[in-house]
Amino acid sequence: MNDLALTLRQVGYTNKAFWRNPASAFFTFAFPLMFLVIFTSLLGNGTVPLGGIEVRQSTYYVAGMAAFSVITACYTNIAISVTFNRDAGILKRVRGTPLPGWAYILARVIHAIIVSVILVVICAAFGKVFYSAGIPSGGTLLKLLVMLIVGAASFAALGLALTPAIPNADASPAVVNATILPLLFLSGIFIPMGDNAPAWMKWVARIFPVKHFADGMGAGFLGLPFKWCDVLVVAAWGVAGLALAARFFSWEPRR
């Protein structure tokens, strides 16, 4: 069996393992919708100025939670689950099989991308039904799909790159959340960062990929200009994460 066939088979195994943990699968899909309902109920009655236009906050949160769901599925879930598998000795056993190490990692990334696409579709449908949010179509949909795939792959790579810095499985939720939660706030995922936001917040947010990914996703839902530089920045972070993961990724439990 060639490497491609092994990779595709591993994608199937990863998918089965995902759905055989119903609690984890449920909250992966339920969390973004829960946050969407909470934030729109609390803050979704007005408008926010973005790019010179007034955007309904309820629609804004549909785009924000779509971006949040991708980051959760690709960065948070991969970093935590891979760390647990490493400490349980699963990665060490995988390394001893005929499956190439890169095929196992690629399968995890492909599965994360598939889950991300499903999550965005669910968020878009939920927003359309309950908040009359627009659904991207035509060229906008194609651009959104490019950002979605690039973003999902990049955040998955960054999640893998983070695992060497996590000392053990018990520490993984704290480390992962400490690295991503501040950026989610600074990037306007949870609270709209309108045109009047402090300049230093905008400056810090533009350094990291979360803001660029959120802007790319928002362009598809909110009718804002789509900037290919956002895709390039997210992709550059993904390449950097992939390089770090290739150099420092550990298959054996940390001592």
Describe the structure.
- The longest helix has 31 residues, at 57-87.
- The protein has one domain (3-248).
- The chain is 75% helix and 3% strand.
- A hairpin with a 2-residue loop joins strand 1 (47-50) and strand 2.
- With 255 residues, it is mainly alpha-helical.
List key phrases describing it:
mainly alpha, 75% helix, globular, two-stranded antiparallel ribbon, 2 strands, 255 residues
Q: In percent terms, what proportion of residues is strand?
A: under 5%
Mean pLDDT: 88
Largest sheet: 2 strands, antiparallel
- How many E strands? 2
How much is the radius of gyration in Å? 18 Å
> Number of helical runs?
10
Whole-Å distance between the termini?
35 Å
Order of helices and strands: HHEEHHHHHHHH
Poorly predicted segments: none
Name the helicity range: over 70%
Q: Which structural class should the secondary elements be placed in?
A: mainly alpha
Number of domains: 1
- Give, in spatial order, the strands making up the sheet with the most strands: 1-2
Helix-strand layout with pairing:
Elements: H1 3-19, H2 22-43, E1 47-50, E2 53-56, H3 57-87, H4 90-95, H5 101-131, H6 138-162, H7 172-186, H8 199-207, H9 209-222, H10 228-248
Antiparallel strand pairs: 1-2
Helix pairs in contact: 1-5, 2-3, 3-5, 3-6, 3-7, 3-9, 5-6, 6-9, 6-10, 9-10
Briefly say what this structure is.
The chain has one domain (3-248). 75% of the residues lie in helices and 3% in strands.
